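Curious: why this fold?
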Amino acid sequence: MRNSTTLFIAIFAIVTLVSCKETKKEVKEKPKEEQPPNVVFIISDDQAWTDYGFMNHEAIETPNLDKLARESHTFTRGYVPTSLCAPSLASIITGVFPRDHMVLGNDRVLPGDDKEGKPAWQSEWRADNYASVIENFKMLNTLPKLLKEKGYLSFQTGKWWLGNYANGGFDDGMTHGDPERGGRHGDYGLEIGRKGMDTLNTYIDLALEKKKPFFMWYAPFLPHSPHNPPDSLLQKYLPMAPTEYVAKYWAMCEWFDQTCGELMDYIEEKGQTENTLFVYVCDNGWVQNENDSRYNPISKRAPYDYGMRTPIMFKWKGKIEPKLDDRTLVSSLDMLPTVLDLVGIERPKELDGINPLNETEIENREAVFGEIYAHDFNTIDESLFYQIAITEPYKLIVPDKANKPDEKVQLFDIYKDPFEQEDLADKNPEIVAKLKGQLQESWNE
Protein backbone atom coordinates (compact mmCIF):
# COMPACT_ATOMS: atom_id res chain seq x y z
CA MET A 1 0.00 0.00 0.00
CA ARG A 2 2.80 2.31 0.93
CA ASN A 3 4.60 1.60 -2.35
CA SER A 4 1.41 2.27 -4.34
CA THR A 5 0.94 5.62 -2.60
CA THR A 6 4.53 6.57 -3.26
CA LEU A 7 4.18 5.63 -6.93
CA PHE A 8 0.95 7.65 -7.27
CA ILE A 9 2.59 10.74 -5.74
CA ALA A 10 5.56 10.43 -8.07
CA ILE A 11 3.36 10.10 -11.15
CA PHE A 12 1.21 13.05 -10.03
CA ALA A 13 4.31 15.21 -9.52
CA ILE A 14 5.63 14.36 -13.00
CA VAL A 15 2.30 15.12 -14.67
CA THR A 16 1.99 18.39 -12.75
CA LEU A 17 5.54 19.40 -13.69
CA VAL A 18 4.96 18.64 -17.37
CA SER A 19 1.64 20.51 -17.28
CA CYS A 20 3.27 23.55 -15.72
CA LYS A 21 6.03 23.53 -18.30
CA GLU A 22 3.50 23.31 -21.13
CA THR A 23 1.50 26.17 -19.59
CA LYS A 24 4.63 28.30 -19.26
CA LYS A 25 5.56 27.42 -22.82
CA GLU A 26 2.13 28.50 -24.04
CA VAL A 27 2.36 31.78 -22.12
CA LYS A 28 5.87 32.40 -23.35
CA GLU A 29 5.00 31.72 -26.97
CA LYS A 30 1.86 33.88 -26.97
CA PRO A 31 2.71 36.98 -29.03
CA LYS A 32 2.70 40.21 -27.09
CA GLU A 33 0.47 42.90 -28.59
CA GLU A 34 2.57 45.96 -29.37
CA GLN A 35 1.31 49.36 -28.29
CA PRO A 36 0.60 51.46 -31.38
CA PRO A 37 2.81 54.50 -31.94
CA ASN A 38 2.11 57.94 -30.58
CA VAL A 39 1.03 60.27 -33.39
CA VAL A 40 2.15 63.90 -33.52
CA PHE A 41 0.83 66.33 -36.13
CA ILE A 42 3.05 69.40 -36.55
CA ILE A 43 1.19 72.06 -38.52
CA SER A 44 2.75 75.33 -39.62
CA ASP A 45 0.47 78.35 -40.07
CA ASP A 46 1.01 80.70 -43.05
CA GLN A 47 4.37 79.64 -44.49
CA ALA A 48 5.34 79.28 -48.16
CA TRP A 49 6.67 75.97 -49.45
CA THR A 50 9.98 77.69 -50.22
CA ASP A 51 10.61 78.98 -46.70
CA TYR A 52 12.71 76.23 -45.11
CA GLY A 53 16.38 75.45 -45.03
CA PHE A 54 15.85 72.02 -46.63
CA MET A 55 13.86 73.71 -49.42
CA ASN A 56 16.92 75.87 -50.13
CA HIS A 57 15.71 79.25 -48.94
CA GLU A 58 18.43 81.86 -49.32
CA ALA A 59 18.25 83.08 -45.71
CA ILE A 60 15.71 81.32 -43.48
CA GLU A 61 17.25 78.74 -41.15
CA THR A 62 15.10 75.83 -39.93
CA PRO A 63 17.57 73.30 -38.48
CA ASN A 64 14.98 71.26 -36.57
CA LEU A 65 12.63 70.86 -39.52
CA ASP A 66 15.64 70.17 -41.74
CA LYS A 67 16.52 67.27 -39.43
CA LEU A 68 12.92 66.05 -39.45
CA ALA A 69 12.96 66.17 -43.28
CA ARG A 70 16.15 64.07 -43.39
CA GLU A 71 14.65 61.47 -41.06
CA SER A 72 11.25 61.32 -42.81
CA HIS A 73 9.75 60.19 -46.04
CA THR A 74 9.48 63.79 -47.18
CA PHE A 75 7.23 64.74 -50.08
CA THR A 76 8.28 68.19 -51.25
CA ARG A 77 5.33 68.37 -53.67
CA GLY A 78 2.54 68.21 -51.14
CA TYR A 79 -0.66 70.25 -51.44
CA VAL A 80 -3.51 71.34 -49.22
CA PRO A 81 -6.94 71.25 -50.90
CA THR A 82 -7.60 74.88 -50.03
CA SER A 83 -5.36 77.82 -49.14
CA LEU A 84 -7.14 79.17 -46.05
CA CYS A 85 -6.64 77.94 -42.51
CA ALA A 86 -10.12 76.96 -41.22
CA PRO A 87 -11.10 74.74 -44.17
CA SER A 88 -7.55 73.45 -44.56
CA LEU A 89 -7.32 72.35 -40.93
CA ALA A 90 -10.79 70.79 -41.09
CA SER A 91 -9.66 68.71 -44.08
CA ILE A 92 -6.54 67.56 -42.24
CA ILE A 93 -8.52 66.30 -39.23
CA THR A 94 -11.36 64.68 -41.26
CA GLY A 95 -9.58 63.54 -44.44
CA VAL A 96 -12.29 64.97 -46.72
CA PHE A 97 -12.66 67.98 -49.02
CA PRO A 98 -14.21 71.24 -47.79
CA ARG A 99 -17.32 70.52 -49.88
CA ASP A 100 -17.81 67.42 -47.70
CA HIS A 101 -17.08 68.83 -44.24
CA MET A 102 -18.66 72.21 -45.17
CA VAL A 103 -16.10 74.40 -43.40
CA LEU A 104 -15.66 76.43 -46.57
CA GLY A 105 -14.02 79.54 -45.09
CA ASN A 106 -13.06 81.27 -41.88
CA ASP A 107 -16.34 83.13 -41.27
CA ARG A 108 -19.89 82.66 -42.45
CA VAL A 109 -22.24 85.36 -43.71
CA LEU A 110 -25.94 85.01 -44.48
CA PRO A 111 -28.29 87.15 -46.58
CA GLY A 112 -29.15 90.29 -44.63
CA ASP A 113 -25.94 90.39 -42.60
CA ASP A 114 -24.45 93.86 -42.32
CA LYS A 115 -21.52 93.55 -44.70
CA GLU A 116 -20.91 97.30 -44.65
CA GLY A 117 -20.25 97.42 -40.92
CA LYS A 118 -17.63 95.48 -39.00
CA PRO A 119 -15.68 92.63 -40.60
CA ALA A 120 -17.52 89.32 -40.30
CA TRP A 121 -15.16 87.98 -37.66
CA GLN A 122 -15.85 90.99 -35.42
CA SER A 123 -19.62 90.95 -35.85
CA GLU A 124 -22.08 89.83 -33.22
CA TRP A 125 -23.74 87.38 -35.66
CA ARG A 126 -20.50 85.56 -36.47
CA ALA A 127 -20.96 82.91 -33.74
CA ASP A 128 -24.63 82.35 -34.61
CA ASN A 129 -23.81 81.84 -38.29
CA TYR A 130 -20.99 79.42 -37.52
CA ALA A 131 -23.00 77.36 -35.02
CA SER A 132 -24.62 75.21 -37.72
CA VAL A 133 -21.19 74.61 -39.30
CA ILE A 134 -19.91 73.34 -35.95
CA GLU A 135 -22.97 71.14 -35.38
CA ASN A 136 -22.48 69.52 -38.78
CA PHE A 137 -18.77 69.03 -38.09
CA LYS A 138 -19.48 67.26 -34.81
CA MET A 139 -21.21 64.46 -36.73
CA LEU A 140 -18.14 63.72 -38.90
CA ASN A 141 -15.39 61.18 -38.39
CA THR A 142 -12.17 62.81 -37.17
CA LEU A 143 -8.77 61.31 -36.48
CA PRO A 144 -9.13 61.60 -32.67
CA LYS A 145 -12.47 59.78 -32.81
CA LEU A 146 -11.04 57.00 -34.99
CA LEU A 147 -7.94 56.56 -32.83
CA LYS A 148 -10.07 55.80 -29.77
CA GLU A 149 -10.50 52.32 -31.26
CA LYS A 150 -6.86 51.69 -30.33
CA GLY A 151 -7.06 53.33 -26.91
CA TYR A 152 -5.47 56.66 -27.84
CA LEU A 153 -5.68 59.81 -25.75
CA SER A 154 -5.95 62.86 -28.02
CA PHE A 155 -4.86 66.41 -27.22
CA GLN A 156 -5.44 69.71 -29.04
CA THR A 157 -3.06 72.66 -28.89
CA GLY A 158 -2.85 75.71 -31.15
CA LYS A 159 -5.19 76.72 -33.95
CA TRP A 160 -8.73 75.29 -33.82
CA TRP A 161 -11.79 76.80 -35.51
CA LEU A 162 -14.60 74.41 -34.58
CA GLY A 163 -15.56 75.65 -31.13
CA ASN A 164 -14.45 73.57 -28.16
CA TYR A 165 -11.69 70.99 -28.65
CA ALA A 166 -14.20 68.23 -27.77
CA ASN A 167 -16.07 68.95 -31.02
CA GLY A 168 -13.18 67.30 -32.84
CA GLY A 169 -13.13 64.26 -30.58
CA PHE A 170 -10.13 65.33 -28.51
CA ASP A 171 -10.00 64.14 -24.90
CA ASP A 172 -8.41 67.38 -23.74
CA GLY A 173 -7.25 70.62 -25.25
CA MET A 174 -6.47 74.29 -24.91
CA THR A 175 -9.30 75.83 -26.96
CA HIS A 176 -12.58 76.50 -25.14
CA GLY A 177 -14.28 78.01 -28.21
CA ASP A 178 -16.69 80.17 -26.22
CA PRO A 179 -17.53 83.26 -28.35
CA GLU A 180 -18.44 85.15 -25.17
CA ARG A 181 -14.79 84.81 -24.13
CA GLY A 182 -13.24 85.54 -27.51
CA GLY A 183 -13.44 82.04 -28.92
CA ARG A 184 -13.06 82.00 -32.70
CA HIS A 185 -9.94 80.25 -33.98
CA GLY A 186 -8.04 78.96 -30.98
CA ASP A 187 -8.30 81.40 -28.03
CA TYR A 188 -6.04 80.02 -25.25
CA GLY A 189 -4.62 77.48 -27.68
CA LEU A 190 -2.92 80.26 -29.64
CA GLU A 191 -0.46 80.70 -26.77
CA ILE A 192 1.28 77.37 -27.37
CA GLY A 193 4.74 77.91 -28.81
CA ARG A 194 4.58 81.68 -28.46
CA LYS A 195 4.41 81.44 -24.64
CA GLY A 196 6.19 78.14 -24.11
CA MET A 197 5.38 74.45 -24.40
CA ASP A 198 4.36 73.59 -20.82
CA THR A 199 0.74 72.67 -21.53
CA LEU A 200 1.70 70.38 -24.39
CA ASN A 201 4.37 68.71 -22.27
CA THR A 202 1.82 68.16 -19.51
CA TYR A 203 -0.45 66.32 -21.94
CA ILE A 204 2.43 64.06 -22.98
CA ASP A 205 3.23 63.33 -19.34
CA LEU A 206 -0.43 62.49 -18.68
CA ALA A 207 -0.57 59.95 -21.51
CA LEU A 208 2.69 58.33 -20.40
CA GLU A 209 1.47 58.17 -16.80
CA LYS A 210 -1.69 56.38 -17.97
CA LYS A 211 0.41 54.17 -20.30
CA LYS A 212 -1.69 55.20 -23.28
CA PRO A 213 -0.64 56.03 -26.83
CA PHE A 214 -1.36 59.68 -27.61
CA PHE A 215 -2.31 61.85 -30.56
CA MET A 216 -0.97 65.39 -30.34
CA TRP A 217 -2.32 68.24 -32.50
CA TYR A 218 0.42 70.89 -32.49
CA ALA A 219 -0.87 73.73 -34.71
CA PRO A 220 0.70 76.87 -33.21
CA PHE A 221 -0.06 80.42 -34.27
CA LEU A 222 3.35 80.47 -35.98
CA PRO A 223 4.76 81.92 -38.16
CA HIS A 224 1.34 83.57 -38.52
CA SER A 225 1.03 87.32 -37.90
CA PRO A 226 1.40 89.25 -35.69
CA HIS A 227 5.02 88.99 -36.71
CA ASN A 228 6.62 89.79 -33.36
CA PRO A 229 9.61 87.44 -33.12
CA PRO A 230 12.18 87.43 -30.31
CA ASP A 231 14.52 90.37 -30.80
CA SER A 232 17.56 88.11 -31.16
CA LEU A 233 16.01 86.51 -34.24
CA LEU A 234 14.87 89.82 -35.67
CA GLN A 235 18.36 91.27 -35.35
CA LYS A 236 19.72 88.18 -37.09
CA TYR A 237 17.56 88.69 -40.19
CA LEU A 238 17.45 92.49 -40.47
CA PRO A 239 20.80 92.70 -42.33
CA MET A 240 19.74 89.97 -44.78
CA ALA A 241 16.18 91.02 -45.64
CA PRO A 242 15.08 93.69 -48.14
CA THR A 243 12.80 95.32 -45.53
CA GLU A 244 11.93 95.03 -41.85
CA TYR A 245 8.58 93.43 -42.72
CA VAL A 246 10.35 90.59 -44.51
CA ALA A 247 12.93 90.24 -41.73
CA LYS A 248 10.14 89.83 -39.17
CA TYR A 249 8.49 87.09 -41.22
CA TRP A 250 11.77 85.23 -41.74
CA ALA A 251 12.44 85.43 -38.01
CA MET A 252 8.98 84.02 -37.30
CA CYS A 253 9.76 80.99 -39.46
CA GLU A 254 12.84 80.24 -37.38
CA TRP A 255 10.91 80.84 -34.15
CA PHE A 256 8.38 78.23 -35.25
CA ASP A 257 11.24 75.86 -36.05
CA GLN A 258 12.67 76.33 -32.55
CA THR A 259 9.38 75.28 -30.97
CA CYS A 260 9.29 72.18 -33.19
CA GLY A 261 12.74 71.34 -31.86
CA GLU A 262 11.50 71.72 -28.28
CA LEU A 263 8.60 69.35 -28.98
CA MET A 264 10.78 66.68 -30.59
CA ASP A 265 13.44 67.02 -27.88
CA TYR A 266 10.84 66.49 -25.14
CA ILE A 267 9.57 63.33 -26.82
CA GLU A 268 13.19 62.16 -27.09
CA GLU A 269 13.80 62.90 -23.38
CA LYS A 270 10.79 60.72 -22.55
CA GLY A 271 12.23 57.85 -24.57
CA GLN A 272 9.34 57.95 -27.06
CA THR A 273 11.02 58.87 -30.36
CA GLU A 274 11.13 55.32 -31.71
CA ASN A 275 7.48 54.84 -30.80
CA THR A 276 6.21 58.12 -32.28
CA LEU A 277 4.90 58.83 -35.75
CA PHE A 278 5.56 62.46 -36.70
CA VAL A 279 3.56 64.04 -39.52
CA TYR A 280 4.32 67.54 -40.82
CA VAL A 281 2.33 69.91 -43.03
CA CYS A 282 1.58 73.64 -43.43
CA ASP A 283 -2.06 74.76 -43.55
CA ASN A 284 -1.52 77.33 -46.33
CA GLY A 285 1.17 79.50 -47.85
CA TRP A 286 2.32 83.07 -47.28
CA VAL A 287 4.38 85.55 -49.30
CA GLN A 288 5.30 88.59 -47.23
CA ASN A 289 4.78 92.03 -48.76
CA GLU A 290 7.95 94.10 -48.55
CA ASN A 291 6.28 97.39 -47.67
CA ASP A 292 3.50 96.44 -45.29
CA SER A 293 2.54 93.65 -42.89
CA ARG A 294 0.08 91.89 -45.22
CA TYR A 295 0.53 88.95 -47.55
CA ASN A 296 0.90 89.03 -51.32
CA PRO A 297 -2.37 87.92 -53.01
CA ILE A 298 -0.51 85.22 -54.97
CA SER A 299 -0.22 83.23 -51.74
CA LYS A 300 -2.81 82.82 -48.99
CA ARG A 301 -6.37 82.30 -50.36
CA ALA A 302 -4.97 81.96 -53.91
CA PRO A 303 -5.01 78.89 -56.20
CA TYR A 304 -1.29 79.16 -56.88
CA ASP A 305 1.48 77.02 -55.40
CA TYR A 306 2.53 79.85 -53.08
CA GLY A 307 -0.85 79.34 -51.42
CA MET A 308 -1.42 75.58 -51.76
CA ARG A 309 1.92 73.79 -51.88
CA THR A 310 3.62 72.45 -48.74
CA PRO A 311 6.16 69.80 -47.80
CA ILE A 312 4.50 66.80 -46.16
CA MET A 313 6.60 64.50 -43.97
CA PHE A 314 6.08 61.10 -42.33
CA LYS A 315 8.64 59.96 -39.76
CA TRP A 316 8.53 56.75 -37.72
CA LYS A 317 12.05 55.79 -36.74
CA GLY A 318 12.89 52.28 -37.82
CA LYS A 319 9.53 51.79 -39.58
CA ILE A 320 9.42 54.40 -42.37
CA GLU A 321 12.52 54.61 -44.57
CA PRO A 322 13.76 58.20 -44.89
CA LYS A 323 13.53 59.56 -48.42
CA LEU A 324 13.41 62.97 -50.08
CA ASP A 325 10.77 62.70 -52.79
CA ASP A 326 10.63 65.74 -55.04
CA ARG A 327 8.43 64.17 -57.71
CA THR A 328 5.37 62.46 -56.20
CA LEU A 329 2.23 64.54 -55.75
CA VAL A 330 0.50 64.16 -52.38
CA SER A 331 -2.25 65.93 -50.46
CA SER A 332 -2.88 66.80 -46.83
CA LEU A 333 -6.00 64.64 -47.31
CA ASP A 334 -3.56 61.71 -47.37
CA MET A 335 -2.41 62.25 -43.81
CA LEU A 336 -5.39 60.63 -42.11
CA PRO A 337 -5.59 57.43 -44.21
CA THR A 338 -1.81 56.97 -43.92
CA VAL A 339 -1.95 57.22 -40.14
CA LEU A 340 -4.85 54.77 -39.96
CA ASP A 341 -2.93 52.25 -42.07
CA LEU A 342 0.19 52.57 -39.94
CA VAL A 343 -1.65 52.07 -36.64
CA GLY A 344 -3.89 49.30 -37.96
CA ILE A 345 -7.33 50.90 -38.15
CA GLU A 346 -9.67 50.31 -41.08
CA ARG A 347 -10.26 53.42 -43.17
CA PRO A 348 -13.78 54.87 -43.38
CA LYS A 349 -15.14 54.76 -46.93
CA GLU A 350 -15.72 58.52 -47.15
CA LEU A 351 -12.03 59.51 -47.05
CA ASP A 352 -10.80 61.48 -50.07
CA GLY A 353 -7.09 60.73 -49.70
CA ILE A 354 -4.78 57.73 -50.13
CA ASN A 355 -1.74 56.27 -48.40
CA PRO A 356 1.18 57.72 -50.41
CA LEU A 357 3.59 55.28 -48.74
CA ASN A 358 1.75 52.56 -50.69
CA GLU A 359 3.26 52.42 -54.18
CA THR A 360 0.16 50.86 -55.73
CA GLU A 361 -2.07 53.66 -54.49
CA ILE A 362 0.35 56.29 -55.81
CA GLU A 363 0.49 54.57 -59.22
CA ASN A 364 -3.30 54.54 -59.42
CA ARG A 365 -3.71 58.22 -58.53
CA GLU A 366 -4.56 60.37 -61.54
CA ALA A 367 -4.48 63.79 -59.90
CA VAL A 368 -4.57 65.82 -56.70
CA PHE A 369 -7.53 68.19 -56.46
CA GLY A 370 -8.31 71.46 -54.72
CA GLU A 371 -11.12 73.94 -54.22
CA ILE A 372 -11.04 77.48 -52.88
CA TYR A 373 -13.93 79.47 -51.45
CA ALA A 374 -14.60 82.96 -50.14
CA HIS A 375 -13.15 83.90 -46.76
CA ASP A 376 -16.68 84.85 -45.65
CA PHE A 377 -18.77 82.02 -47.04
CA ASN A 378 -22.31 80.75 -47.22
CA THR A 379 -23.28 77.99 -49.67
CA ILE A 380 -20.97 76.20 -52.09
CA ASP A 381 -22.65 77.79 -55.11
CA GLU A 382 -22.41 81.30 -53.66
CA SER A 383 -18.86 80.95 -52.33
CA LEU A 384 -16.82 78.78 -54.73
CA PHE A 385 -13.95 80.72 -56.32
CA TYR A 386 -11.68 78.09 -57.92
CA GLN A 387 -11.35 74.38 -58.67
CA ILE A 388 -7.86 72.95 -59.13
CA ALA A 389 -6.48 69.75 -60.66
CA ILE A 390 -2.79 68.92 -60.22
CA THR A 391 -1.01 66.18 -62.17
CA GLU A 392 2.52 65.44 -63.28
CA PRO A 393 3.47 67.88 -64.73
CA TYR A 394 0.41 70.12 -65.16
CA LYS A 395 -1.76 72.18 -62.86
CA LEU A 396 -5.16 73.43 -64.00
CA ILE A 397 -6.94 76.36 -62.33
CA VAL A 398 -10.63 76.78 -63.19
CA PRO A 399 -12.32 79.96 -61.88
CA ASP A 400 -16.01 79.69 -61.02
CA LYS A 401 -18.05 81.35 -63.76
CA ALA A 402 -20.55 82.90 -61.37
CA ASN A 403 -18.16 84.20 -58.71
CA LYS A 404 -15.04 84.91 -60.80
CA PRO A 405 -16.56 85.87 -64.19
CA ASP A 406 -13.60 87.99 -65.35
CA GLU A 407 -10.91 85.35 -64.82
CA LYS A 408 -9.84 82.73 -67.35
CA VAL A 409 -8.72 79.11 -67.03
CA GLN A 410 -4.97 78.79 -66.41
CA LEU A 411 -2.58 75.89 -67.02
CA PHE A 412 1.00 75.63 -65.74
CA ASP A 413 3.81 73.12 -66.02
CA ILE A 414 4.70 73.18 -62.32
CA TYR A 415 7.78 71.00 -62.78
CA LYS A 416 9.45 73.24 -65.34
CA ASP A 417 7.77 76.41 -64.05
CA PRO A 418 7.35 76.01 -60.26
CA PHE A 419 6.52 79.69 -59.73
CA GLU A 420 3.76 79.63 -62.36
CA GLN A 421 4.97 82.39 -64.64
CA GLU A 422 3.83 81.03 -68.03
CA ASP A 423 0.16 80.23 -68.65
CA LEU A 424 -0.06 77.37 -71.17
CA ALA A 425 -3.87 77.05 -71.38
CA ASP A 426 -4.35 78.59 -74.84
CA LYS A 427 -1.57 76.44 -76.33
CA ASN A 428 -2.85 73.15 -74.88
CA PRO A 429 -6.66 72.92 -75.20
CA GLU A 430 -6.59 69.11 -75.19
CA ILE A 431 -4.76 69.00 -71.84
CA VAL A 432 -7.18 71.57 -70.41
CA ALA A 433 -10.14 69.48 -71.57
CA LYS A 434 -8.70 66.28 -70.10
CA LEU A 435 -7.99 67.83 -66.70
CA LYS A 436 -11.40 69.51 -66.66
CA GLY A 437 -12.92 66.08 -67.17
CA GLN A 438 -10.95 64.60 -64.26
CA LEU A 439 -11.90 67.57 -62.12
CA GLN A 440 -15.60 67.16 -62.90
CA GLU A 441 -15.45 63.42 -62.25
CA SER A 442 -13.85 64.03 -58.86
CA TRP A 443 -16.43 66.68 -58.02
CA ASN A 444 -19.33 64.41 -58.96
CA GLU A 445 -17.98 61.66 -56.72
